[in-house]
Specification:
Shape: globular
Bound molecules: guanosine-5'-monophosphate, manganese (II) ion, sodium ion
Keywords: Membrane, Transmembrane, Transmembrane helix
Number of helices: 12
Organism: Quadrisphaera setariae
Mean pLDDT: 94
Protein name: Bifunctional diguanylate cyclase/phosphodiesterase
Largest sheet: 8 strands, mixed, barrel
Oligomer: single chain
Low-confidence stretches: none
Strand content: 15-25%
Helix content: 40-55%
GO molecular function, one term: cyclic-guanylate-specific phosphodiesterase activity
């Protein structure tokens, strides 16, 4: 089983890679950015997915080092991506877990990484799961405000899976909602999807931009666009790709 010690060794050896899943404008079908998703390559060449090592990394605190590696890499990679003619520069989204946001210097460190990479804060999104917003921690809130002040946008990840934080949504500095893929999965031809429609309406009432996750079909992409959902992410367009493959795919849109 993947251990924290193994993860820390993999970080030192350079065996922890960052892949990028395209985020697409639902009206135009063009790529506007990507979500950075971590992958651990074992010595035998096999890949360990985040679900298999993140829970332990969060419990041990190793997720802090992991997150710093991902932020550093994601900012450098995004700074290297081409800007297509007539298009805005792409954004890159990183996931921040509870222990990372509980570090008093999280935002300071992220801003320093932006500077090292020469990436404007406006090009970074930090994704926070709903559960973290529930904690009412002044350290977490301080980090979110400091990131916002640097131009970084904040997304609520897996939205709709943790309704208890509803009240917090109006109190924290948030910009985007990522609708959990369990809601998108309910969108099928000939079937009503009132919960997904309701989640989208709620996000818009809060003046938040919506990214629908787990989009797997043309029907879902069209239905979400018709609901006014701004962006989508999912296998319908592409899985998470190494930065080179991500750029190659992007260049085909030019
Ligand atoms: O990579 P995969 O598609 O299996 O993603 C599973 C989940 O793991 C994602 O939803 C995300 O929340 C989490 N995850 C992926 N990469 C990172 C990372 O770099 N840091 C943190 N904290 N979570 C991540
Ligand atoms: O941060 P988050 O947990 O949402 O990360 C995205 C996760 O969803 C990753 O595990 C990724 O591999 C997975 N994923 C991405 N696109 C799709 C999709 O279209 N369908 C499904 N079922 N999973 C997806
Ligand atoms: Mn995410
Ligand atoms: Na998510």
């Amino acid at each position: 089983t993947p251990t924290t010690r193994g993860l820390l060794q993999a970080l030192e050896r350079g065996d922890v890679h960052v892949h990028y899943q395209p985020v697409v404008d639902l009206r135009t079908g063009t790529t506007t950015g990507a979500e950075a998703l971590v992958r651990w390559t074992r010595e035998d060449g096999s890949t360990v997915m985040p679900g298999d090592f993140l829970p332990q990394a969060e419990a041990s605190g190793a997720v802090v080092q992991l997150g710093r590696h991902v932020v550093e890499r994601a900012c450098a990679d995004a700074a290297s991506w081409p800007v297509l003619p007539g298009r805005a520069a792409l954004t890159v989204a990183v996931n921040a877990s509870g222990p990372e946001l509980a570090e008093a210097d999280y935002a300071t460190w992220v801003v320093a990484a932006l500077h090292r990479a020469g990436l404007p804060g406006e090009r970074l999104v930090v994704e926070v799961v709903e559960g973290v917003l529930d904690e009412r921690s002044p350290v977490v809130a301080g980090n979110l405000h400091a990131l916002r002040a640097a131009g970084v946008r904040i997304a609520v990840d897996d939205f709709g899976t943790g309704w208890s934080s509803m009240a917090r949504l109006g109190q924290l500095p948030l910009d985007l909602l990522k609708v959990d893929r369990s809601f998108v999965a309910a969108v099928e031809p000939g079937r009503e999807a009132p919960v997904c429609a309701g989640v989208i309406a709620l996000a818009h009432a809060l003046d938040l931009t919506i990214v629908a996750e787990g989009v797997e079909t043309a029907h879902q992409a069209a239905w979400l666009a018709a609901q006014g959902c701004e962006e989508g992410q999912g296998w319908w367009w592409a899985p998470a790709l190494p930065t080179g493959a991500f750029v190659a795919r992007l260049e085909q849109e030019a």
